[in-house]
What we know:
The chain is an all-alpha fold. It has a single domain (about 10-325), classed as Farnesyl Diphosphate Synthase. About 75% of the residues lie in helices and about 0% in strands. It contains 17 helices and two strands. It has helices at about 10-15, 15-30, 35-45, 55-65, 70-95, 105-110, 110-130, 135-160, 165-190, 195-220, 225-230, 235, 245-250, 255-265, 275-285, 285-305, 310-325; strands spanning about 100, 100-105. A hairpin with a 2-residue loop joins strand 1 (about 100) and strand 2 (about 100-105). Helix 3 packs across helix 7 (about 110-130). The longest helix is centred in the middle third of the chain and has 28 residues, at about 195-220.
Amino acid sequence: MNSxxxxxxxxxxxxxxxxxxxxxxxxGGYSVSxxxxxxxxxxxxxxxxxxRLRPALLLLxxxxxxxxxxxxxxxxxxxxxxxxxxLVHDDIIDxxxxxRGRPSPNTIWGNPKCVLAGDWLYMQAFQIxxxxxxxxxxxLLTDLTKQMVEGELLQIEKLGSLITRDSHLDLIYRKTACLxxxxxxxxxxxxxxxxxxxxxxxxxxxxxxxxxxxxxxxLDLTASELVLGKPVxxxxxxxxxxxxxxxxxxxxxxxxxxxxQTVLEQRAFNGVTHQDIIAILARYESIAAANQEAARFxxxxxxxxxxxxxxDFKRALLWLPQFVVAREK
Length: 329
């Protein structure tokens, strides 16, 4: 890999290929239990793949600061296991049937087994993290899981409601961006980053996570089921008002507002179609507004890296926010 600016996501993952492969092996090994159902669910989830963005962020942050130890692979597996545990619980809470183009685990093993498997994965992640013998790492992971659980509970309380923009952004932070933030900070902790550097790394992760989730929410409204690997407009069907919808609700007519509210409250398209909602969003340029907000967070992320050493890992981090907001799934 030369010193030229990295141009594609493939090049980023080529830069991390060996470490990501090691994380994949660790993930597989760590998800084995003497209880067969846990091992089966863990392996099924691992085989489902994913972008592995969270461990990639941790690796890039650590390597940008010249870290060469084994802790980055170990903690990369930890954050991916935590992320996987949240997906298991999310699918149960949302009563989802499809995850990444395949049946969600709860439709195969049932809710009780999947709840407990998710809990087991959380505990396994913490047990692995103890190997670092670093209380700062444990503090970050403990605070992270509390925030994520609080975010899920807050979202459940607000399902079907017309929430404010600020409330929605707080939910995005708790449910998604805080994990991105902690991944970056963990990489800094491993590399001996100063407190000021850790804060900038954390803010980078937060901003990338916000951009990622806003883009994800837009794709839920606009992409095809084939591309998404799950039904379109799932958020509306689950009673979730995301940023583009909130933008339209702040501007639309009472009749349009009633149409959106009907879908959110009934959690179904009864008498109001998906295309009806898309037409309302188009009328007020709400999709464009959400995309602009994602782009704003992407710019905020790159601003945090100005004072870090110039190397291929920094250039990958500078490019990554563009990948996040330009992706199609």
